[in-house]
Design a protein that fits this description.
Layout: H1 2-30, E1 34-36, E2 42-45, H2 50-71, E3 78-82, H3 84-90, E4 100-101, E5 106-110, H4 115-118, H5 129-139, H6 149-152, H7 155-168, H8 175-193, H9 198-210, H10 221-227, H11 237-258, H12 261-272, H13 279-290, H14 292-299
Parallel strand pairs: 2-3, 3-5
Antiparallel strand pairs: 1-2, 4-5
Helix pairs in contact: 5-9, 7-8, 8-11, 9-11, 12-13, 13-14
Length: about 300
């Protein structure tokens, strides 16, 4: 009787495991997204978007390799490259096309052009001819239209930058410094390893800044700190994009002034300084331990608005 019960139990366990595996496999077949394999990070993409996913994954993997040598750390992330019909299910930000980091492990980016990206394109007549030429070279399509996709595809690394500092335990101190940090990472990598992408990375921020700030409710760093968690609501998505454009432009200036070493110096400083810091203490630390150009973002912000 005991043997029969034991055998029956084993048979039940085997059947249960087989059923569970079958259900899991069936569930995987029913997932609306497809997955890339063979990478250090996990990538899911909407069907029909594999070419875009491959391109973004290759860019991210190159950056992972670069920063592994620079800062000896690699986060674990899952990146979703999403078509509009899958955005609501997997993304957190309501506006399709806004790249974002959901929880320091999952990242969401759009797989195709969209109204949000197009909303940043100003009337070219109001811009300097030299900037118009750069916009045309960076974003004009063969049919004469413009797409900001070459810029927004690069922002997958911006979002992954937040996973870097969060998973490594860096203390960012301020929201603006957190965003500046990941833009410095992005700009440094592109400038060092894929400089052919610099026109796509640099032109969009200059275009947005060149169009002025009169339409935006918030423009100060204090405003940014106070309304950061309300981005897309009280602070409109475009207003948030204007801030990011300024942080991108600042990252370019920082790289030009201090080179690639700024990323490592800033990483070390934010890893070491876990204590609360007043504004003047933070700026003094950035100036002395990282680079004066990083401190200047805070010190000179209001001069350019």
């Amino acid at each position: 009787m005991k043997i029969s019960t034991y055998v029956a139990s084993i048979l039940w366990l085997i059947c249960s495991l087989s059923t569970a595996q079958e259900n899991k496999n069936q569930g995987n077949k029913n997932l609306p997204l497809e997955q890339l394999t063979g990478y250090s990070q996990t990538y899911y993409f909407s069907p029909g978007c594999k070419e875009r996913a491959d391109k973004i994954a290759a860019f991210i993997e190159n950056a992972v390799s670069y920063f592994r040598k620079e800062i000896a750390f690699t986060p674990k992330t899952t990146l979703f490259i999403l078509a509009p019909q899958h955005w609501e299910q997997y993304a957190r930000f309501p506006v399709y096309g806004m790249p974002h980091n959901l929880d320091y492990y999952r990242l969401a980016v759009a797989s195709e052009d969209n109204p949000f990206w197009k909303s940043f394109l100003p009337s070219l007549e109001q811009l300097p001819p030299a900037l118009v030429e750069r916009i045309q070279n960076a974003y004009r399509q063969t049919d004469g239209s413009y797409s900001m996709q070459p810029f927004f595809d690069l922002l997958a690394l911006h979002e992954m930058g937040h996973s870097y500092h969060a998973q490594a335990g860096l203390k960012m101190h301020r929201k603006w410094l957190s965003e500046l940090f990941v833009n410095i990472m992005l700009h440094s990598f592109v400038a060092e390893k894929q400089p052919e992408l610099l026109p796509a990375l640099e032109t969009f921020p200059e275009m947005v800044i060149g169009a002025g700030s009169s339409e935006y409710r918030y423009t100060s760093l204090v405003d940014f700190e106070n309304n950061y968690d309300d981005a897309g609501k009280g602070m409109t998505s475009k207003n948030y994009g204007w801030y990011q454009s300024n942080f991108h432009h600042a990252a370019k200036q920082i790289y030009n002034a201090g080179g690639s070493r700024v990323v490592k110096e800033l990483w070390i400083a934010l890893k070491e300084h876990q204590q609360e810091m007043k504004d003047n203490e933070l700026v003094d630390m950035l100036r002395k331990e990282v680079h004066p150009s990083v401190a200047d973002v805070y010190l000179k912000w209001n001069q350019k608005q």
